[in-house]
Amino acid sequence: MMLTPIHSAANNIQAGSPAFLPIKLPALDNTFGALLLGSFLGFILYGLTVHQVYRYFRFPAYEKDPVYVRSTVAAVLVLETLHSALAMHLCYYYLVQNYFRPQALLKGIWSADVLPFITGLLIMVTQTFFARRVFLLNRRTVVIVVFVLMLLLGQLGFSTACTVEAFTQPDLFHVENMQWLSICAVALVIAADSLLTFCLTYNLYRSRTGIRSTDSILRLLIIYTINNGLLTGTLSTIALFMAIFYPHALITDGINICIVKAYANTLLSVLNSRHLLREHQAQARGAAYVKSGGYLSTEQYLTTVAPSFAQYQSNSQPVLHIHIMQDVVDDLSIHSAYEDDLIALDKNTGQGVHPSV
Questions:
Q1: Which helix (H) or strand (E) holds 345?
Q2: Residues 6+ apart with CB under 8 A from 318
Q3: Chain segment 50-79, per-residue pLDDT in tens
Q4: What is the pTM of this model?
Q5: Cα dist. 281→9, 10, 113, 192, 214 in Å?
Q6: Cβ-proximal residues to 286 (8 Å cutoff; 6+ apart), any chain
Q7: Are 49 and 75 in contact (CB under 8 A)?
Q8: Nearest-angstrom CA–CA distance, 129 and 2
């Protein structure tokens, strides 16, 4: 069975047919082409999100996480799945289901209308997690945290207004009212992201203790925080400029699909990187152990570890205090190649005593 050529089929259509009247269509490369490319990249990042969620729930440490953290991970997975399904539906509707009906490209569809609200909600959930971390690191930043939460609520409000406006107007490319709503939402996201990145970096930098293994972990955390902030901040800035200079294109919408996936993966990467940090700390302790000639004597402990820990105990923040104190206790149980070569902690004096002493 042979297919009828398109031009032959078009010749059989009456000239007055409404479906084939001249229609002024937008350029496809910076509209639905940008939306399709953004969806493709978003689906790849969604696969990474699912993988990271799987890894998170397989780690034994997740059982010790508070209910808020586990609920946040579950909410991110549900919202990311819904967000990906909406992007998939709108691409299928415009580019497959209505392939031979160009007039359908000018009309909005419910999946495209709901997408801004889901985007704002996902950003709100992920950034609230980082705002909580800032507050736990330094409770004196409560004013900054409250201000960041107000910014996040504002961007969610503008995103919701975009969804409401999209449902009220049938034309997809009449975006005079939606343009400034989208610009305000992206601008608030950039402001909140910048404040959180700065506060996390500053508080981690001030949490240095003088203990080599601990400071090396803090340096890694600072690098992770800056890199994550640069990724999401750069994408949001590009989306802001595209919304300002190309208001009638869908480039911003394509970038927003990737931005949401980047925020979700940033949160999950922070949670999943904790075991890597523990391995890094173990390697640092092992290097100190080898450098000391196989074990730490009582004099070495009293002149190196104890003073640093005492100084840390008086100056550190309460949140990091618990974890670092546990690390130092682990440092007092450094094993050599033989099981009997162990630094014991005297329960009465609190001093490290080697069996050979």
A1: strand 344-345
A2: none
A3: 999 999 998 877 788 899 999 999 999 999
A4: 0.71
A5: 70, 70, 48, 31, 7
A6: none
A7: no
A8: 58
